[in-house]
């Protein structure tokens, strides 16, 4: 039998084992237990159909894509969805895998249990992440970053997500705060901040949520008032659930300011600011004792009449904060899919080994129909999550102005809910040991709940 789960556009290979679940009953126990501990490369996968809309040369990129999900609402089904995007050359795939492999090994060797229990990521781990330039994955090379595409980011997120605290710390820095400056910053703002953010000489945090309004951006109460000489804003407000809030030196903060509205009055509109801790008036609470991602620093950050030079209005113009926030939150939603898929593939591999080696009632676990059903559901769900994530990433990469808002949202919802279902199945497969704190499964369950909180 084939050792791949084959779909219309690409195969899904179980990590490390590489065995089709339905083959388990036909395999010798030892042949599966002593497999090579290697993830298959994309270069080992059969060629996929080509399409002239999927090119990688920036000078040849089409303007925008046909928004698949939006068109579904108007009764249109666009067949281009069957053309699966991919990296251009085998060399690119191999380079990416060579970059990812040592990172995966390092994170798997890190003491995630200690990070979780101590509620702190050790400095030596942060330094190692810096050495891989993981804080500058999206930043252009001219500013000292890696300038990764959406597809490359997705692949890296598969392995960094193997520790939820590390993943959350990286994402808060690069996919939220840094992303805001990358998308909306002026040339001067990028020159000033991106090199420091790429090297993580300065850590960044994204200050959006407030206790009173949650994710309702229009209801925020933080206020910034312009000084009489019109050279400085003074910011007062409190932001909560700020990841990296205690160690960050640079904050992207959203507050309301008065902007001209017609000829009659000023109107309060949301504006984004780049705020340095050194500006003064910035304090933070101790890290909150959270359910999951416990090693990530989640704080409340207060701004007490913090002075902000007018050239630190993100983008240069007040009143554009709402659109900036939406663009940032939308940009990397697909990464939830790839990160969930990375975790599930690793746990599925372990579950397969477990059901092969463990016996109950004089039978191997993999011989029970209920176990087979759970493994099949995990594999199929993981395949779907991974496919959605990389299809969306490929679309983002191959168009100048991709329209993937609904696709990214679909990835986020489906992957967070699918992950929750699959991690429950995995814990059922491992039985009572998964309930023990000295095992990693309950930690993945707790970390996974963080994804539900981010469905908005």
Shape: globular
H/E topology pattern: EEHHHHHHHHEEEEEEEHHEEHHH
Q: How large, in whole angstroms, is the Cα Rg?
A: 23 Å
Number of helices in the DSSP assignment: 13
Main sheet? 4 strands, antiparallel
Structural class: alpha+beta
- How far apart the termini lie comes to 43 Å
Query: Residue-averaged pLDDT, rounded?
Result: 86
Low-pLDDT regions:
1-55
- Percent in strands: 5-15%
* Number of E-state strands: 11
Helix content: 40-55%
Q: Which oligomeric form is depicted?
A: single chain
Neighbour order of strands in the largest sheet: 4-5-9-8
Describe this structure in words.
By secondary structure, this protein is of the alpha+beta class. It has 13 helices and eleven strands. The protein has helices at 29-33, 68-73, 90-109, 112-118, 123-131, 150-160, 164-184, 187-199, 321-331, 335-357, 369-397, 405-430, 441-453, and strands at 5-6, 11-12, 204-207, 223-226, 232-243, 250-261, 265-276, 282-284, 298-309, 359-360, 363-364. A four-stranded antiparallel sheet has the order 4-5-9-8, with helices on one face. Helix 7 (164-184) runs antiparallel to helix 8, helix 7 (164-184) packs across helix 9 and helix 11 (369-397) runs antiparallel to helix 12 (405-430). The longest helix is centred in the C-terminal third of the chain and has 29 residues, at 369-397. The radius of gyration is 23 Å and the shape is globular. The two termini are 43 Å apart. The model is unreliable at 1-55 (pLDDT under 50).
